[in-house]
Amino acid sequence: MTYKDYITTVYVIVDEVLKLIGHKHKTNKPKFSDSELITLLVYATTFRKGEIKSTLKEFKENYSDMFPYVPELPAIVKRAKKLKKLVKILIILVKNLLSNKESLIAILDTKPIPVCELTRIKRCKKVSGKLYKGNNGHREWFGYKLGLIIDTYEQPISFNIMPASKHDINALKEFKEEQTIINLLNGKILIADKAFNSKGLKEELKKICIELEAIKKGKIHHKQKKKQTFLKTIRKKIETTFSRLKYMGIESIKAVSLEGFLAKIHFFILALQFKIILKV
Predict the structure, then answer these.
(1) What is the CA radius of gyration of the chain?
(2) How remote is the C-alpha of 12 from its chain's centroid?
(3) Would you say 142 and 116 are in contact if contact means Cβ atoms under 8 Å apart?
(4) Beta strand 140-151 pairing with 156-163
(5) What domains, with CATH codes, occur in the chain?
(6) Closest CA to 241 of 266, 197, 275, 265
(7) Phi and psi dihedrals of 108, rounded to 5?
(8) pLDDT band of 5, cuts 50, 70, 90
(9) Tens-place pLDDT, residues 48-70
(10) For residue 46, with 0-12 CB atoms within 10 Å meaning exposed, 13-18 middle and 19 or more buried, which class applies?
(11) 0.90 exceeded by pTM
(12) How far apart are CA 62 and CA 43, in angstroms?
């Protein structure tokens, strides 16, 4: 698939989904529609590591026949910040409409998303304080955690973003408060890492028809070894997903404001959804 084919495909899908949900623009005939904006940002996060400025130049020079009018960077960034909720809806709808693969298993884990390098913490203007200092035993970082749920085909189901110091289990607690996510996970087995071991939470989820299976800590009884090996094997799929996101550039997001930073995370997840479905 060429870049032009990819852009055309993404635009058509996004435009049809926005029509399906009755999305309306502020003006009847926008020079640059939300469908075009989302397509541009998905392209930037898929192939250009989220670099919007260089993507704008590329679109103006190479795709003027498809996008006769492309706004300047400040206008793009301003509009992108307002589309976070819409992007979350798109992630779910694109998966449901384009994927005929149904999985009875979902996988949950968290990933560090640094706001800046550790040496620049004191100069960071987006966030400050101990709340954003993360340490998972393997690395330290300053910023956020991405809580991500995928299916066994590595397609994103949903995600949330929380300060780096929050315990991983908070990601699951936040998901539990969203009725849309509860509906999506209804009847599924949710596989998670050791950090998500909580008998109380497991019982709460069981009441809403979600079976939580977290990898056991410490010594494992021989009767449980096969099951635990299976859980660890399945959980590796989300590690592959996180590797894809890292390669795409999610750990090196450049944004002037915190709002812009968080908006870019949303577009990285949507871009991941298209990347998997379109096999690029």
Answers:
(1) 20
(2) 21
(3) yes
(4) antiparallel
(5) 102-252 (3.30.420)
(6) 275
(7) -120, 140
(8) very high
(9) 999 999 999 999 999 999 999 99
(10) buried
(11) yes
(12) 13
- Listing DSSP states for the chain in one string gives --HHHHHHHHHHHHHHHHHHTT---SSSS-SS-HHHHHHHHHHHHHHSTT-HHHHHHHHHHH-TTT-S----HHHHHHHHHTTHHHHHHHHHHHHHHH-----SEEEEEEEEEEEE-GGGGGG-SS--SGGGEEE-SS-EEEEEEEEEEEETT--EEEEEEEETTS-THHHHHHHHT-HHHHHHHTT-EEEE-GGG--HHHHHHHHHTT-EEEEPPPS---GGGHHHHHHHHHHHHHHHHHHHHHHHHTGGG---SSHHHHHHHHHHHHHHHHHHHHTT-
Question: Which residue is it, tokens 């976070």?
Answer: 84
What tokens were used for 179? 């009725």
Which tokens hold the place of 83?
């589309």
